[in-house]
Write a structure and sequence with these properties.
elongated; Spore Coat Polysaccharide Biosynthesis Protein SpsA, Chain A; 10 helices; seven-stranded mixed sheet; 7 strands; alpha/beta
Length: 317
């Protein structure tokens, strides 16, 4: 199978029929072998009944229904798990992404050799209250992740099958899938300018809290990617540094007390700064030690992404 299209949907019954017809039209015009996987993220409207009807009409259309709303990351993760196509394409269910982009996104993976191709909605049909925060968010994400994409959170993306089978998307990490792919060893990441269409039905399911959650998730994924298997390297280093600074200040105060006969040391701000520094340093060091114990006893402590094998069977890994 050439293409799997994974669509996370939440209360989008108005747009689903048009989206389905549009994708099928593009697939038939290009003679693609395909599957469309709708993941109903606990919708309260008629979405699942529509998806069920789609599946009866077209065996290439499949569906997954959650009992409640778990979020876009969970929906994409289940869709990735089920996808069988050589190229996996994601798009939003609100008709703001154009299925006409599918052939070129597929070609860039198959012919140009990209691992991931991310859409870039260069011209957006959004109010300024969304466009400015989005620009700031993307600039910060580029700086932290070192992934040179203009629109990290664009829902329209294509992936080589190996990519989606090698990563786990949880929480609200769907915003950082290209960065996760890069940290998993899939470094050939491309970008394509795509059409951003105005939403024809309903309203956005994401509020201002997405920027706060996005920042926290960015910090989490950065830490996990760099120190997930070696937490002591971060906490131990910071803890040792702070403890040494605090101990150095305390030693200087003791020296000043007995050599220069300076008294009332406990009334000086430096005294309390040294105590705070040593306590925080000790806490960080112990946190790193506990993190190291947890990491070393984890069942996935030696799980690594293997690209190819020579003279060995997959069963051995």
């Amino acid at each position: 199978m050439q293409i799997s299209v994974v669509i996370a949907s939440f209360n989008e019954e108005e747009s689903l029929p048009e989206l389905k017809d549009w994708i099928v039209k593009v697939m038939d015009e290009n003679n693609f072998s395909y599957e469309i996987i709708f993941v109903d993220d606990g919708s309260k409207d008629n979405s699942w009944q529509l998806i069920s009807d789609f599946g009866k009409e077209n065996p290439n259309i499949k569906g997954i229904k959650f009992r409640r709303n778990y979020g876009k990351s969970a929906a994409l993760n289940r869709g990735f798990h089920a996808a069988q196509g050589d190229v996996v394409i994601t798009m939003d269910a609100d008709l703001q992404d154009s299925p006409d982009e599918i052939p070129e996104l597929y070609r860039m993976i198959v012919e140009d050799g990209y691992d991931v191709v991310s859409g870039w909605k260069k011209k957006r049909h959004d109010p300024i209250s969304k466009t400015i925060p989005t620009k700031i968010y993307n600039a910060a994400t580029r700086w932290v992740t070192k992934t040179k994409l203009h629109d990290m959170n664009c829902g329209l993306k294509s992936y080589r099958k190996d990519v989606v089978k090698s990563i786990e998307v949880y929480g609200e990490m769907h915003r950082y899938i290209p960065a996760m792919a890069k940290w998993a060893g899939f470094s050939n990441i491309g970008e394509k300018v795509v059409e951003h269409r105005a939403r024809p039905y309903g309203t956005s399911k994401f509020g201002i809290e997405r920027f706060i959650n996005g920042f926290l998730d960015l910090m989490s994924i950065t830490f996990i990617s760099k120190f997930g298997k070696k937490p002591m390297h971060l906490f131990g280093t910071l803890g040792t540094l702070l403890f040494v600074i605090g101990f150095g200040i305390a030693a200087w105060l003791v020296f000043a007390k007995f050599y220069w006969h300076q008294f009332h040391m406990t009334e000086r701000p430096l005294f309390y700064l040294s105590l705070l520094s040593m306590m925080v340093g000790s806490t960080l060091f112990v946190s790193g030690f506990l993190g190291e114990l947890i990491s070393r006893n984890s069942s996935i402590r030696n799980e690594y992404h293997i690209q190819e094998l020579l003279g060995l069977d997959d069963d051995e890994f």
